[in-house]
């Protein structure tokens, strides 16, 4: 079978033949062009082959740029929280509060501490750690979104004042 060769010389394609558009083009400091997918594959391959070097450089970067690193970490935590909130409905299941800063993940049948201990080998963790774990496990139906007030009321009094 005679397949056509990719157009390496063509300005519209990367070396693997992917069409380059303004949305997916990466131009190296030396001027060669690639699509972002191929660039990512090459970067991953390099990172795996040079794991210690990459880890050392990342550590050095974090130490040189603590504020920038903190901003990146904050944005990543917010992003994962918003993914979880949006997946489970985007508002408090009890009162309808929609402000993301007031919302949290709740175990529908209680037992949150025991569940977190099980998930994290005896260490009780919360926040972004539980969000990552929930996403990794495929968004199980044992959770719901509650605002902090409703969550606290259910934990302390057994039911929320909003519930009739």
Task: Please tell me about this protein's structure.
The protein has 164 residues and is mainly alpha-helical. It folds into 2 domains: 1-64, no CATH class; 68-157, no CATH class. The chain is built from 6 helices and 4 strands. The chain has helices spanning 36-49, 51-64, 66-87, 112-119, 128-136, 148-157, and strands at residues 25-27, 33-35, 103-107, 143-147. The strands form 2 sheets. Strands 1-2 form a two-stranded antiparallel sheet. A hairpin with a 5-residue loop joins strand 1 (25-27) and strand 2 (33-35). Helix 3 packs across helix 5. The chain is elongated. The model is unreliable at 3-9 (pLDDT under 50).
Q: Structural class, please?
A: mainly alpha
Mean pLDDT across every amino acid position? 83
* Number of strand elements: 4
Rg from C-alpha positions? 23 Å
Number of helical elements: 6
The portion of residues forming beta strands comes to: 5-15%
Helix content range: 40-55%
Major beta sheet, strand line-up: 1-2
The topology string of helices and strands comes to EEHHHEHHEH
Distance between the termini: 72 Å
Unreliable segments of 5+ consecutive residues: 3-9
How many domain regions? 2
Main pleated sheet: 2 strands, antiparallel
Which geometry do the CA atoms define? elongated
